[in-house]
Design brief:
SH3 type barrels; five-stranded antiparallel sheet; three-stranded antiparallel sheet; 1 helix; 13 strands
Length: about 210
Amino acid sequence: MLKSRKTNAALSVVILALMLTVMACTANDTWIIHLTLTPTPTITPTPLVGDSIRFKLGDKLIIIGNSAFAPVGLNTTAGPFRAASSATQCLPKTNVTILDVSMNITDSSDTTVYYQVSCNGKKGWVPEYQITDRVKGTTLVIKSEDGSGAALYQQNDSIKGKPLDNKCPDGTQVTVDDVQTGKQTGDTGVYFQITCDKLKGYVMEKDVASAN
């Protein structure tokens, strides 16, 4: 009886030793799965510095829209305007100050630069084509892309609007009478109303340059 107890005790010790050996050998095996938390992806706006932006922080500009009277909506975030995310409204020709600058924070394919502005004490974001420093009275020089002169339009509309018969020749100095964005939805052009050789019309920003 005593011999049987000793045998059982010895077997227990051997089994325990084998179990400890197996555990030690497999403690670092690759089949052991370690659960880790996956961080939530975040969108980092593209850094905008130096020559990559047209306007700088602190610049004093004016808001422009596609008419002389309709308010311009300001967004709560950097991106295309949506009524549901409107922060406030700003009347055309209202003075604004640049507070921040960013690319679209939700769509990396959007190449438009967005600016946070302060308008009458309220903040919001607008695309670059809805602000300008070329106010009424600014002198510009006609400088068309192909050198053939700038097309003149009766309205701020190069999509459906037909250009006037006569172009404004390159090198002509003109004075800004008014400035607006494109009349048609999706038109991101900036239009300047000018008088060229007694002919009044709108030219696109791409066809003018600063006089100095």
